[in-house]
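Support request, please re-run this one:
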Amino acid sequence: MRESSVAQAFLQEGREEGREEGLEAGREQEARKIVQEVVQRRFGSFDPKLRHHVETTSDVAELEQLIYRAMEVATWDELLP
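Re-run finished. Output below.
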């Protein structure tokens, strides 16, 4: 039996939404990884409070700002939100 055009449209929409969600999740993971790498290179370790913050943040823009701050600050106190 052939799928109706309405069913095909719903399937296509679902695929597109899934792709978008997957891309966003990938951006979040990559930003988290970069935060961790920059912090470890700058400070030699990864503070548990910061680790929790990074792992629970889903806002890519906030993670990106944390990357930039990690490259600029001199101490943990300046870095932690």
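The helical segments are 5-43, 48-56, 60-72, 76-79. Residues 5-43 form the longest helix (39 residues).
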